[in-house]
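Model: Ready when you are.
Researcher: Fold this.
Model:
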Amino acid sequence: MAIRRRSEIIRSNPIDDGLKSFCVALNSSKLGISATPNIINQSDSEELKNIVVDLTVALQKLPAARLLPSVTGRGTLRSDLLRLGSSVDSDDFSIERIIPLLKAVLSAESDEVIWDNVYTAVAESTPPPRPVSSTQ
C-alpha cells in the first residue's frame, strides 16, 4: 500500500523542469564543467559537497518531497533531505552514496528512478528512530 501511494504521489507531482535550475546553475558555475554524469570525475570532493548541498536544496523545493513519506515513517522526505544536506560537512559523510542520485538527475532519468535514489541516499544518512521511553 505504501509503495502504491508513493508511486501515485510521484506520478501526480512530476519533477518536470523542477531540477532544471539546478542543472543550469551547475552549467554556469565557475567550475567550468558541464552538468553531465562526468561531473563526478571532473570535481574534487569540496566541489562535489557543494553540488550535493545545491541538489538537496533543489529536491526539497519539489512538491513531491513535501508529500512523500520520510524514511523513518515520521514526517516527509523533505525533512530527510534537510538532514542529508546538513550532514554533508560532517566527517563521516561519504560522497559515494550520493553519486547514483547525482548521476540519475544529470542523466534525466525517470522521476521514479530519481526518487528511488533519493530514498537510498537519505536512508544511509538517517539515524534509526529512537525508542520510545517506557516511563510515563
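Researcher: Now this one.
Model:
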Amino acid sequence: MEIENPWGLVIIFSAFMIQVVAFGYSFAWGIYIVELLSLYQTSAWILALIGSVNIGIFLGAGPLVSLMMRFLSYRKVALIGAALSSLGMLIMPFTPAIELLLLFYGVMAGLGYCMLYIPSHVLSGLYYNKHRSLATGIATAGSGLGSIVYPLLTQYLINVYGWRGSMLILAGINMNTFWLSGLLRPAPVQVRTKGQSEKIHRHRYQPTLRW
C-alpha cells in the first residue's frame, strides 16, 4: 500500500477498531435475550425487536449522518456518535421498563454507532487513491472480527459478572471510541478542497474599488 500520508494507516486502524466495537456489540444482543426474558416478563420477539431496531437504525440512518457530515467535520460527527452510544449503554443496566431499553439501546446506541461507522469508513478511503479498495476492505474487516469476538466475550462476562456487570464493562470498552474518533484527521484532499472553496469565495465576493 502506498504511503502518501502515514496518517492514513492511523485512520484505517481507527476505522477497523470502531467497526469491531460497533458491529460486535450490535450482533451480540441475542445473548442478552435469554437473560432479559425472566427480568422483564415479556416475549422473546419483543426483545429480538429491540436488537432489530438497533441494527436498522445503525445501517439505515446513513443518509441522515451523511447530511450531518456536510455541516460538521467527520471527527465531530464520530465524537457525537461515541457519546450517544456510550451513554445509551451506560443507562441500559438500570432501565426499569422495556420501552426505555428500546429507546437507549435500539435508538440511541443504534444512531450513535451509525455516526461512528459512516465517517470512519468514508475517511479510510479518502486517504488513498491507488489502493482505496484495499484500505476500505481492511477497515471493513473489523465488522467481521467484532461479530466473532463479541458474542464470546459477552457470554464470558455474563457468566462472571452477570448481565448488568457485562453491560457496564462493554460500555467501558465502548468509551474507547472517543479517542478512536479523535484520530479522524481530515484527509489531504478535503483540506485542499476546502482551501480552494474558501479562495473562490473570497475572490467572488471581494469588493471592487471604483475611483
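Researcher: Key takeaway?
Model: Residues 132-174 form the longest helix (43 residues).
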